[in-house]
Each structure stands twice: as structure tokens, then as C-alpha cells.
Amino acid sequence: MKPRVSADTALTAAWIVALAASLAVLFIGEVLGQMPCLLCWYQRAFMFPLAVVLGLGLWWQDRRVGRYGVALGLGGAAIALWHSGLYVGLVPEPIQPCTAIGPSCTDVNQLVLGIPIPFLSLIAFVLVVGLSTLSLKESHS
Question: Which residue windows are transmembrane per the record (predicted)?
Fold first, then answer.
């Protein structure tokens, strides 16, 4: 018999990921002074509400809040995937507006523990989607 993750545990983990990601990019931008590019801003537009929505869902014990985690997470993951493809050169387009005159996601200042920020964003969104999905499966059992 395999162990089951409870809906509360999955949602709590999804909220922690969203909160940690939100606080991390605020630290990078506000404390370290590294300006985000346009694609990073779009990803933030999906991540910041996740921290609030999932947190409120936990507070109010709304077992169906995971569906919002899935929806917002998929939107953010799509942008993060595109951004990651641009970063590694799989998408044959320059990163815009990551140029020499604006913020750039391609220099060494945009690495955290040796991992590019677009990849970290993609990982965070995938985790939120997966954990939110787990919470929904558990709540319907």
C-alpha cells in the first residue's frame, strides 16, 4: 500500500513553493537590485497571486482551491517554459527585452545556486501544478 498525501499537505506544500518563489524574486529585485525582464514580470503576474490564493484557500479550508493553483500554475509554467527555451537557444528568437540596455536574464548575475532564474521559475510552477493536482485528487476521493 503506497502512502497517500493529504489534500492539506499538498496544498500547504504548493503554498510554500509559491510563497518562497515570490519572496525570492522580491529579494532579487528589491534587495539585490536586479531588474526583471518582461518575461520575468509575466511570470510574476502568475506566481504572486498563487501565494495569496493558495494561502487563503488553506486559511478558509477550501478543498477546491487547488484548481486555481492548477490554472495559474499552468499559465505561469507556459511562460517559464518559453523563457527557458529562449535562454538555452531552443527558441530561435532573442530574449526581448533582455538587451544590453535593459535587464538581462542571460548573464551570470541571473543564476541562483548555478541555476538560471527562468529554470527555477519553471520548476516552481511545475511543483505548484503537481501539488495542486494532488490536492484535487485527494479531495475527490
Answer: 43-61, 68-91, 111-136
Q: Per-residue DSSP letters for 3-58?
A: ----HHHHHHHHHHHHHHHHHHHHIIIIIS-----HHHHHHHHHHHHHHHHHHHHH
Contact 16, 50 (CB under 8 A): no
User: 112 pairs with which residues across the strands?
Assistant: 115
Interacting residues of 93 by C-beta distance below 8 A, sequence separation 6+? 86
Smallest CA-to-CA distance from 109 within 30, 43, 28, 27 is with 28
What domains sit in the chain, N to C, each tagged with a CATH number?
Answer: 7-136 (1.20.1550)
| Cα gap 87→91, rounded to integer Å | 8
pLDDT by residue for the chain (141 residues), tens only, comes to 455 668 899 999 999 999 999 999 999 888 888 888 888 899 999 999 999 999 999 999 998 999 999 999 999 999 999 988 888 878 766 555 455 555 666 555 666 778 888 899 999 999 999 999 999 986 555
128 phi/psi in degrees, rounded to 5: -60, -45
What's the pTM value of the predicted model, to 2 decimals? 0.86
